[in-house]
Amino acid sequence: MVQVKKADPNNRTVAENRKARFSYEILDTLETGLVLTGTEVKSLRGGHANIQDSYASSEGGEIWLINSYLPEYLQANRFNHEPRRRRKLLVKKREMARLAQAVDREGMTMVPLKIYFNDQGRAKLLLGVARGKKLHDKRQTEKERDWAREKGRLLKERG
Asked: Apex CA 123: angle with CA 121 and CA 127, to 5°?
C-alpha cells in the first residue's frame, strides 16, 4: 500500500506574487521575517493575503513592506488591524546594508515574492532583489514559456 504524504500545515505558501517574475528579472532572494500583530497572523493562517502591488522600501535604517493587503480577521472585533498598514521586515544589519546599496547604486528594487509559514510555524516573506524588464524581454519570456508548453505537449503526444 502506498502512503500519501499530507502537506505540512505549518510549511505552506499563503500569498505569491506571480506577476513579479514576469515583470522583473530576479537577481537575488532573501528570506525575511515579518513583524505582525495577532490578528494578522490569524488572517494569514486562514490563507488570505495579497502582495501583488506591494514593494519593500528602506527608510530610516529599516526595511518596510508597503501596500500589502492582509484582510481583517472577522472574529477579532475591536482589536483588529489595518489591512494595508506598513509592516516592518526583520533583516540583519549586514543584509540590510547590502539591499540598500543595491537599490541606491544599481537602480534595483525590492519585490516581495511570497509569504509562507516555515517549519517552526513563523510567517516569512521571500524578498527578491530585482531589475525591471523591458517590453522586449517580457515578450521573450512569454515566447520561451509558450515553447516549453508546446514542447511538453508534443513529447506527451509522441510517447
From this structure: 135
pLDDT in tens, 21-38: 888 888 888 899 998 888
Cell of 86: 506598513
- 143: cell is 515566447
**Closest Cα partner for 130 from 113, 145, 154?**
113
- How far is it, in rounded angstroms, from Cα 157 to Cα 123? 42
Q: Which DSSP symbol is given to 50?
A: B
C-alpha closest to that of 52 among 93, 97, 84, 95: 84
Residue 55 phi, psi (nearest 5): -150, 170
Q: Kindly state the helix (H) or strand (E) to which residue 146 belongs, with its residue range.
A: helix 135-158
pTM above 0.70, yes or no: yes
Distance CA 43, CA 72 (A): 7
Asked if residues 41 and 151 have their Cβ atoms less than 8 Å apart, the reply is no
Taking only the tens place, the pLDDT of each residue in 59-69 is 888 889 999 88
- For 135, the grid coordinates are 517590453
Question: In this structure, how many other beta carbons lie within 10 angstroms of the beta carbon of residue 116?
Answer: 19
Q: What share of the chain is helix, strand, coil (3-state, %, to 5)?
A: 35, 30, 35
Q: Is the dihedral of CA 25, 16, 72, 120 positive or negative?
A: negative
